[in-house]
Backbone:
């Protein structure tokens, strides 16, 4: 469900800006927090709590999920089977993606070569459209897996998930905001989805960073231009929680992407347009307010020309 | 010839001031594309370049510049190369090996330090240098009473940053582990690669031997030590994933032989091997010429080539193309592949040295124990 007030922040470890963002929203009182992406370190949130003057209440979604797995092995088995299906789907998607991306890159390389003027652009457009269609197909397949799972297992109606949901709702009802930290993006998304956390929120604002920023968008795109193994093609991983629209969140873009490579930047932006590909490095901030985006000064987006421009420019 | 040298050459008389100006004007050795010019200034009867590039004469003579104390030698070094060397001075009939006084770049090893020249395009990897953002791991010391060897062994254990007893980790056993720490920056490399999510957080047992040329050369006691003593000790004291797929043996030179031989003797225990410049000497006919220390290695290689079995599931193999061992390493790749193992082989423009082995750590470890780079965004 699209929310009315969401703030996406850059990574918080070395230069935390969360408190400033909370203050700027006028948030008073308790702040519910999600650190499930940190997995077994979920409760090691003392720095986060201190940063917000001990106003946080950790929803403990990772622990709660472990409890559900223990209490409801049937659901746990079903979730593992879904995970395996999604993993295989991702493998198949990756096989197709690698060829399409290589074709798109090769055509883009030839754009500047003599003799191709007037010929190459339709070919480039066609190659990028093919990637976009594949991304769309993949998202649809992933969505179908989740719909089928939800219809068959109705996880939120099952006893132990429902019990935890009631507790989470109590916390959220008495909280003024929800903050979502980063970590393992698939685990974080899985836990938030299992308990339907965003559906339990009223109108409180959400502040999210790193993987947290990725999961509240419509599509979770995983990316790295310079991995030690493989070609480094960004992949659509998942259907996001869609609390915001029209953005692809790219935390640590400065470290993960070749932002000085205009061809790669342009391809990335063209692949996901009209969504804003937001480079969320430390001290950046994007505000989603009543269906519109605005960016704090210094927050950049990847553009189809290959440049980085201020969000809003 | 280098441009600056040509300018000097044009002078009829070379004054000390000319040489000083030349020395101040650039860094040495002079690297211009593939041509590297070594320079020495001083009194000598002869100056030679001593290096360990297999296939080239190990000693190459410098030319004296007119009657000046300036000596030079230009050789071809391909781009991206790393070459370690020393200068050999002949004075009063005596030969002396020294580090290049004009080159501050040194590569250290257990025997001291060599000068090192970087070919055009070579850069020391950033992941092998201290990163202030990387969280630091910890080194603990354990001792282990070994029945196999009848003595007590010291084992250093690397624990990754944010180590937790509540989770299980893969295990890497590194032969010559303290040397990997000292000469290949292994601790810094692990801290960085784990921080960058390029390799899994892992526990590393850093072992050493006082008699490595014996124990690492397919010594049955060593396989017993690893499998029946070290591994149980590590599993008892640390939270390890108890599966072969999460275990790796690593070693360089004779350490590579030790890794392969132990996995071959005890198949099904170690899923992964990282073999760097392994001393896999063998002969197809007749006796080898590498001295008696290689006898057990050659025997092992004969047995292994005849009955390779399937020592592990994944093998990362690397070797420098300037090493004499490149022939053997290239030769065993098809054999390793024929066993059904996944094999990744890398050749480097480097020699038989610790910085070569350091520079391959990222590729090898990230292939054998890939981290969650694509999934974790902190």
Residues:
């Amino acid at each position: 469900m699209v929310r009315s007030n969401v703030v996406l922040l850059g990574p918080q470890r070395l230069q935390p800006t969360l408190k400033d963002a909370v203050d700027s929203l006028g948030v008073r009182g308790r702040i519910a927090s999600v650190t499930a992406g940190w997995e077994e370190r979920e409760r090691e949130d003392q720095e986060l709590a201190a940063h917000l003057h001990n106003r946080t209440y950790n929803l403990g979604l990772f622990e709660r999920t472990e409890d559900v797995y223990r209490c409801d092995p049937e659901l746990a088995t079903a979730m593992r089977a879904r995970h395996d299906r999604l993993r295989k789907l991702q493998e198949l998607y990756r096989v197709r993606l690698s060829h399409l991306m290589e074709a798109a890159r090769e055509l883009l390389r030839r754009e500047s070569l003599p003799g191709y003027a007037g010929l190459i652009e339709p070919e480039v457009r066609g190659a990028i459209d093919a990637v976009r269609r594949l991304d769309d197909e993949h998202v649809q397949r992933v969505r179908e897996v989740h719909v089928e799972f939800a219809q068959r297992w109705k996880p939120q109606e099952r006893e132990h998930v429902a019990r935890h949901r009631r507790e989470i709702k109590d916390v959220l009802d008495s909280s003024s905001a929800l903050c979502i930290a980063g970590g393992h993006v698939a685990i974080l998304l899985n836990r938030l989805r299992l308990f339907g956390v965003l559906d339990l929120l009223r109108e409180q604002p959400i502040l999210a960073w790193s993987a947290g920023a990725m999961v509240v968008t419509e599509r979770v795109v995983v990316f790295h231009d310079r991995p030690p193994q493989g070609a480094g093609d960004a992949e659509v991983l998942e259907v996001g929680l869609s609390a915001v629209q029209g953005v692809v969140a790219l935390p640590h873009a400065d470290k993960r992407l070749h932002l000085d490579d205009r061809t790669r930047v342009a391809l990335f932006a063209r692949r996901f347009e009209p969504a804003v590909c937001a480079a969320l490095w430390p001290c950046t901030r994007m505000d989603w307010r009543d269906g519109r985006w605005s960016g704090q000064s210094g927050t950049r987006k990847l553009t189809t020309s290959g440049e980085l421009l201020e969000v809003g420019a | 010839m280098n441009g600056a040298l040509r300018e000097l050459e044009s002078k009829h008389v070379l004054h000390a001031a000319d040489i000083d100006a030349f020395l101040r004007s650039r860094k040495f050795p002079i690297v211009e594309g593939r041509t590297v010019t070594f320079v020495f200034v001083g009194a000598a009867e002869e100056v030679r370049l001593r290096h360990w590039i297999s296939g080239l004469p190990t000693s190459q003579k410098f030319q004296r510049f007119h009657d000046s104390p300036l000596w030079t030698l230009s050789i071809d070094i391909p781009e991206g190369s790393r070459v370690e060397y020393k200068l050999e001075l002949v004075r009063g009939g005596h030969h002396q090996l020294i580090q290049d006084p004009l080159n501050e770049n040194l590569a250290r090893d257990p025997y001291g330090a060599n000068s090192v020249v970087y070919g055009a395009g070579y850069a020391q990897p950033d992941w092998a240098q201290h990163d202030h953002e990387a969280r630091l791991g910890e080194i603990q010391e354990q001792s282990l009473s070994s029945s196999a060897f009848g003595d007590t062994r010291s084992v250093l254990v690397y624990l990754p940053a944010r180590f937790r007893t509540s989770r299980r980790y893969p295990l890497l056993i590194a032969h010559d582990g303290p040397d990997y720490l000292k000469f290949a920056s292994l601790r810094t490399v692990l801290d960085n690669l784990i921080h960058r999510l390029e390799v899994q957080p892992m526990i590393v047992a850093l072992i050493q031997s006082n008699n490595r040329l014996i124990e690492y050369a397919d010594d049955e006691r060593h396989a017993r030590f690893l499998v029946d003593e070290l591994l149980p000790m590590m599993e008892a004291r640390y939270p390890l994933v108890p599966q072969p797929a999460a275990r790796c043996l690593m070693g360089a030179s004779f350490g590579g032989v030790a890794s392969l031989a132990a996995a071959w003797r005890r198949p099904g225990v170690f899923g992964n091997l990282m073999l760097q410049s392994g001393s896999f000497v063998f002969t197809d006919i007749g006796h080898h010429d590498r001295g008696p220390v290689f006898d057990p290695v050659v025997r092992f290689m004969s047995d292994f080539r005849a009955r390779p079995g399937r020592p592990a599931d994944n093998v990362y193999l690397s070797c420098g193309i300037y090493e004499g061992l490149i022939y053997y390493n290239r030769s065993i790749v098809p054999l390793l592949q024929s066993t059904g193992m996944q094999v990744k082989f890398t050749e480097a423009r480097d020699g038989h040295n610790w910085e070569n082995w350091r520079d391959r750590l990222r590729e090898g470890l990230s292939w054998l124990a890939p981290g969650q780079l694509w999934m974790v965004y902190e």
Notes: Chain A has a mean pLDDT of 96. The first strand of chain A starts at residue 5 and ends at 9. Chain A has one domain: 8-310.
